[in-house]
Amino acid sequence: MKMTGDILSGVPVVDKLSVDELTPGTHRFFFRATTNSLGNAHHLPVIVVKGRTEGTKLFLQSTLHGDEVQGIDVIHQVLPHLDPAKLKGTVVLVPGANPPGMQNVSRYYPAQTETLTLTNLNRMMPGDANSSNAGSRFAYALWHNLYMDNADIFLDLHTDSTGTAYPFFIYADFRIAEVCRLAALQPADQILEDDGIDGSVETELVRNGIPSLTLELGCANVFNPEITRRGVQGVLNTMIDYGMIDGTVDLLGIESFVGTEQVSVQADQGGFARVQVKLNEDVVKGQQLATMTNSFGDVIATYTAPCDGRVLSVCTAPLREPGTLVVQLLRRV
Ligand SMILES: [Zn+2]
Questions:
Q1: If you measure from the C-alpha of residue 159 to the centroid of ligand 1, how many angstroms do you get, rounded to a whole number?
Q2: Percent helix, percent strand, percent coil in the chain, to nearest 5
Q3: Of these four, 5, 235, 267, 306, which has the most CB atoms within 10 Å of its CB?
Q4: Number of domains in the chain
Q5: Ligand 1 centre and the CA of 160: distance in Å?
Q6: Could you tell me the residue range of the domain that residue 309 belongs to?
Q7: The last residue of a domain, from among 241, 268, 299
Q8: 35 Cα: distance to centroid of ligand 1 (angstroms)
Q9: Rounded to an integer, what distance in angstroms lies between the CA atom of residue 207 and that of residue 93?
Q10: For 25-76, what is each residue's pLDDT tens digit?
């Protein structure tokens, strides 16, 4: 634990978090990551709820991609369920892991390198303290001074990118038994068994022996109460199953479809997409998924399913550039 001695809006500032050194109870901190080009620090809100009894350390992070705010609502709605007098173990909650991205309503960390380098923090882990990219240094601070020693299990809360929509969807490395266990506790519509992505929080944590999931909670830039309800239930289920709180696991009657491959249908040329299928709908090979029109309203393309599958993602913003997603399917092969 390294307190800076500073107090910001009444909240103590730390530049290294070590929950083992904290007393039982609920604590608020600002975690000081790196500084911006004016020399001002990026401060991340951190809440630690530590029980009186030893137990699992659960880490909940939201909004490492700055436009993916849904998990902040999940964290805020989980808080009333966390009573340190009854909790076994510790919960660390970070509702907003990329403040500069959030202020830009952007997925990225806006590094000023060579005018502006939009950096994907979820490909940068565990970061590099000596990098020429400020985003990588920011990632390094999160990894080494916020995550390490504070997480036995980790849920990284995301959503689909701006302009596209997922249902409640999970990326999970099914080669790891504890990851399967975590995934099975979430009331998710769809789950992808995948080997991970280099540099992502989830994948790098799993490689370091910390079971982790990437939860994709619907759409960017919104708080959807139904998705929040399910996200909260998944967190509670996790805490129940790991013996942190009393209760009964409840999957809300949802049976997850577990797939092994994402199949993307991308726009061949720019235009206005009209999607004709709904999330979680089963489609068959050859079924029409969407049309594309030009500015005059002429249909210039129709998009069909290249295989059988379940609709995993759709574009919600009609303007599409070449190569952008129109519809994505999940299938099991
Ligand atoms: Zn994301």
A1: 5
A2: 20, 40, 40
A3: 235
A4: 2
A5: 6
A6: 260-331
A7: 241
A8: 23
A9: 22
A10: 999 999 999 999 999 999 999 999 999 999 999 999 999 999 999 999 999 9
